[in-house]
Amino acid sequence: MGTARWLTPASGYLEGYTHTLNPYVGCSFGCSYCYVRRLPVGLFRSEPWGSWVDAKKAEPLKLMSELAKAKSKGSVAIFFSSATDPYQPIEVSAQVTRSLLEVMVDEPPDFVLLQTRSPLVVRDMDLLQQLKDRVRVSMTVETDREDVRRVLTPSAPPLAGRLNALRQLRDAGIDTQAAVSPILPHTPDFARLLSVTAPRVVVDDFFSGDGSGGRRSEVLGMRPIFEQNGWISWYDPSVIGRFVDSLRPYMPEAAIGVNAAGFAPPEYKVAYCPEDTEVALDPAETESEG
Ligand code: SF4
C-alpha cells in the first residue's frame, strides 16, 4: 500500500460536500455517458474507460486519521464516490469499500452519501445500520427500461437488482434515495415505481445536470446515440421538468431533489462534538429531507 490519501477536498458540482472518497481508480461499469471518461484519469490510460479498475493504493486504516483531522476543522460530508462506483465487481473480494465503511463506523463523518448502481451495497447493510442517519445510500436508477440500460450502460447491473436493493435497504431502516441520474427514456409508470421503492428521488439530466450546461454530454456523443435509437425526443431539457411533475402526485415536494442541490446532504445543525464524538444526535436536529 502506498501513501495516497483517501479524502479529497470536494469542489465544483458537489454542493454541500467537503470531501470525495474514491476507493477505486477506473470503473468496470463503463457507462457511455460517464463524464469521468473525459477527465485525466479516463484519458491518460491506453485501455478504454470501462475496461480497467484498480484498488486505490492506500491502507484503509489511514482513513481513520484523515477523518479525525478533517473533523477537527469542521463538519465533514463525504461524497462516496465521485469518479468510480464504490461497489465494483472486484469489491466482492477486495472489500476496500467495506473496510472504509468499517473505519467510518469507528470515526463517523457527519454525513456520507454512498453513491452506487450496484446491489452489492446490500452486503454492507450491517455497517450502514451502525452509521444510522449519517449515511444515505443513493442508488442510480436512470430508467425502468432494460432495453435502454442495455444500450447505454451494458456493463452496469440490471435495474431489477438495483430496485430490489433499494427496497431491502429501506426495509432495514437505512436512508435511501433513487438517483435518476441522468434521466433516460422510461415508461409512464417510472415515477410511481420509484415512489413505492424509495423515500426520496433525485433527478438530473444531460443538460443542467452534467456540470457544464450540456457540453460534456455533447462531447461524449450522447445526441447521436439517442438519434440512432429513435430516442431523440428524450434528449431535451424539458424532459426533467415533466418527470418531476409526474413524481408530484406520489411524493411530497421535500422528497424530490433536482440537480446538484438534490444530491446535497441533509442539513445537520450539530453533527458532532469535537470534545465527545460519542454524543448522540438528536433525531429532531438531524431529520433528513426525505
Ligand atoms: S458507474 Fe459512475 S463512474 Fe462508473 S462508468 Fe458509470 S457513471 Fe462512470
UniProtKB/TrEMBL annotation:
Superkingdom of the organism of origin: Bacteria
Coiled-coil ranges (or none): none
UniProt KW Transmembrane helix keyword: no
Keyword Iron-sulfur: yes
Pfam families hit by this protein: Radical_SAM
Domain (Radical SAM core) ranges: 22-180
Assigned keywords, A-Z: Iron, Iron-sulfur, Metal-binding
Name of the protein described by the UniProt record: Radical SAM protein
UniProt organism field: Cohnella silvisoli
Taxonomic lineage of the native organism: Bacteria, Bacillati, Bacillota, Bacilli, Bacillales
